[in-house]
């Protein structure tokens, strides 16, 4: 195999969920069928890696110092939703009618991986809460062990700043059947039940 082709395949493996076979398929597709798309992809990757940074307010990806959401006067600056990734932010924007602002951690607390409070920007979050504008901190971390530890830490920071804290609900998905839900999810949903009517 060509050394350059091998390097391309190895480079494609950096993508999440892409193993050796998938990377090989992608490389062959781009070279066999769509070299124009390969050039366009390469140009956009270089362009994005050089021009996209992080918003100085919420830390999501943007080309400007302040992202479009943070710059918008129509957003409710008293609500701040904390998410683990920019992908989570986009998922919430597409699925909900939430009109507040965000703060992106770009990870979660994980001491074993060397990710402490500073590495995920909690010092910046504490400063933002200290400004006094935020009244509600919405914790939207994932329901993993690290996500729950991060949620607890976020609650402590909010309480220290005298900011109310809410947590997004976790539980049974819409259309899900109880017999197929894992035990932990079902227990969490049952214990987090709310009054009807």
Give a short synopsis of this structure.
With 197 residues, the protein is of the alpha/beta class. The protein has helices at 3-12, 20-32, 35-51, 68-71, 86-95, 122-130, 145-160, 183-191; strands at residues 53-54, 61-62, 76-83, 100-104, 136-140, 164-167. The chain has two domains: 3-51, Helicase, Ruva Protein, domain 3 (Orthogonal Bundle), CATH 1.10.8.420; 54-167, Dna Topoisomerase Vi A Subunit, Chain: A, domain 2 (3-Layer(aba) Sandwich), CATH 3.40.1360.10.
Topology of this protein?
Blueprint lengths: L2 H10 L7 H13 L2 H17 L1 E2 L6 E2 L5 H4 L4 E8 L2 H10 L4 E5 L17 H9 L5 E5 L4 H16 L3 E4 L15 H9 L6
Parallel strand pairs: 3-4, 3-5, 5-6
Antiparallel strand pairs: 1-2
Helix pairs in contact: 1-2
């Amino acid at each position: 195999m060509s050394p350059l082709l091998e390097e391309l395949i190895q480079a494609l493996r950096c993508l999440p969920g892409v193993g050796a076979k998938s990377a090989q398929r992608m490389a062959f597709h781009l070279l066999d069928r769509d070299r124009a798309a390969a050039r366009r992809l390469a140009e956009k990757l270089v362009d994005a890696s050089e021009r996209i940074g992080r918003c100085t307010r919420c830390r999501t990806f943007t080309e400007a110092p302040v992202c479009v959401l943070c710059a918008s006067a129509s957003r409710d600056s008293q609500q701040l939703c904390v998410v683990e990734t920019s992908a989570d932010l986009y998922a919430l924007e597409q699925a909900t009618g939430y009109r507040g602002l965000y703060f992106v951690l770009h990870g979660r607390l994980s001491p074993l991986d060397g990710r402490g409070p500073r590495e995920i920007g909690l010092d910046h979050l504490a400063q933002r809460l200290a400004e006094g504008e935020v009244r509600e901190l919405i914790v939207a971390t994932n329901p993993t062990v690290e996500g729950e530890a991060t949620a607890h830490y976020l609650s402590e920071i909010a309480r220290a700043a005298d900011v109310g804290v809410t947590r997004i609900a976790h539980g049974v998905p819409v259309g899900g059947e109880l017999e197929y839900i894992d035990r932990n999810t079902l227990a969490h949903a049952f214990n987090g039940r709310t009054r009807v009517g």
